Amino acid sequence: DTLGHVLHKIDKKWIDAFHMFLDQRVNNDWMEISLAAFNSKTRELRFTGARGKLIIVNKNGTQILKGHNYPIGGWQIEKNRTYEEQTMVLPENSMVYMTSDGFQHQFGGSENKKMSAKTFFNYLSGIFNLPADIQKTFLVTAFSDWKNNNIQTDDVCVLGVRL
Fold first, then answer.
1. What is d(CA 57, CA 161) in angstroms, rounded to the nearest whole number?
2. Which pTM value belongs to this model?
3. Contact criterion met (CB below 8 Å) for 160 and 138
4. Do the strands 44-50 and 86-89 form a parallel or antiparallel pair, or are they unpaired?
5. Which terminus in the chain has less CB density within 10 A, N or C?
């Protein structure tokens, strides 16, 4: 199965599971998800996402693979969803990141605004060549500094893998 086919199956199961709630206007459960697979022999990376993104940082710069604009579930959103797969070959020493949107949704900084995605992606490109444990320390510190005394507004998850 392709990754897109896997997401399509999950979407159908999700909608079937929550179908009994269709008459309740308050229930429209959905989720964002990204799937990736990497072949270490061919260095081919496959990706698909339901509102998710994959950030690739390497010696060639930063590339963002965007998933589809619709999530898994959400019965009011786009009836015939397909999740197409994107593929690419990665050079050695690439960092691949999958993140929630919590980092960018946090209020803070000198103007007490949300951090832009561009600022966050630029930050990742500045630390990608460091060891993973050091990257984690930098990200935790950057988030804390950005947030300052504000309450955390969203979940924050950053997964980075060196390929």
1. 11
2. 0.86
3. no
4. antiparallel
5. N
Alpha-carbon distance of 30 to 78, in angstroms, equals: 12
* Nearest C-alpha neighbor of 89 from the set 48, 139, 47, 126: 47
- pLDDT (tens digit, 9 = 90+) per residue, 91-144? 999 999 999 888 989 999 999 999 888 889 999 999 999 999 999 999 999 999
Interval 82-95: pLDDT, tens: 889 999 999 999 99
At 67, the amino acid letter reads G
User: Rounded distance, CA 101 to CA 66, Å?
Assistant: 13
Cβ proximity of 50 and 68 under 8 Å:
yes
Is residue 161 over pLDDT 70? yes
Query: What percent of the chain shows pLDDT beyond 70?
Result: 91
Which residues, in sequence order, are CB contacts of 152 under 8 Å at separation 6+? 102, 106
Find tokens 């786009």 and name the residue: 78
The rounded Cα 17 to chain-centroid distance in angstroms is 24
pLDDT attached to residue 77: 60
CB 84 within 8 A of CB 39: no
